[in-house]
Amino acid sequence: MKKNLAREISEEVEERGFSRVVKVFSLREIEIINSELHEFIQSEKAADDWFSAVDAKGHKNIAVETIYDAHLKRGDISSIIKNKNIVHVAESILGGKADVWRTTFWIKPHGARRVEWHQDTFKSEGFGSFPNVNFWLAFDYAELDNCLWFVEKTHFEIIDTSVFRKESYVKELEESPALPQPPIDGGVSKLALKPGEGVFFDGRCLHGSPPNNSKHRRAGLVIRFIPKGYQLRRCVE
Q1: Predicted confidence (pLDDT) per residue in 90-103, tens digit
Q2: pTM to 2 decimal places
Q3: Is the dihedral of CA 32, 34, 37, 42 positive or negative?
Q4: Is 26 helix (H, G, I), strand (E, B) or coil?
Q5: How many beta carbons lie within 10 A of that of residue 128, not counting itself?
């Protein structure tokens, strides 16, 4: 990837919290990767939950599935996260050498529930806010009504957790399985992706995704980068 392009993407993330769509693999390349990982994903995936989740009443709320740190289990996934173009941009955003802190496969089978608006502050682990940049790589088509949605310029500060428990917002979540408007003001951007494409974003940028009402699976791999040598410390939120 050319230095100028990496700098432009870095500036986008710094400015609004997320980048333009970036192509990393061709459709044929990601098709081969999908085929090679099919059995692994089927056997390793498990239902997940998160702090901001609220079930819609009277609906199935089919679980979103995840696989954590698959790169530690398979060399081919480790090769993906070492892709020089991905790493180069991540280091440009962070302003220096980077380490991969964690990877997560996010898998939405047909009918799977939404992922509510949230910031990646890993509340259950007590990490709070820390410098990080994520790359979300699409393994399947993620269309406008089924992709990552971001709220621009929300990465500059941490939103108090009470905002996600406001009565009016929780009521919206309980009354419909759809992803409602975010609980704070801000412009919403929807990043549709083709397999092999991805988006860089600051984990603190408010984001979520609607339920998967398409006829196909919607899976992606999130690669989480932090500054090289950075020591995560638990805190009280």
Answers
A1: 999 999 999 999 99
A2: 0.94
A3: negative
A4: coil
A5: 15
| Coil vs helix vs strand at 151 | strand
Which residue range forms the structural domain that includes residue 158?
Answer: 3-227
Domain count within the chain:
1
* Residue 233 is assigned to a structural domain of this protein: no
Q: What single letter denotes the amino acid at residue 124?
A: S
- Nearest to 131, CA basis, from 97, 83, 161, 88: 97
The closest of 165, 69, 63, 66 to 117, measured between CA atoms, is 165
Choose among 142, 8, 10: nearest CA to 87: 10
| Sequence-distant (≥ 6) Cβ neighbours of residue 209 within 8 angstroms | 108, 114, 115, 146, 147, 148, 149, 179
Tokens of 124: 């259950």
Alpha helices in 119-192 (DSSP H): 167-175
Residue with tokens 């819609």: 56
Contact 190, 75 (CB under 8 A): no
Whether 234 maps to a domain, the answer reads: no
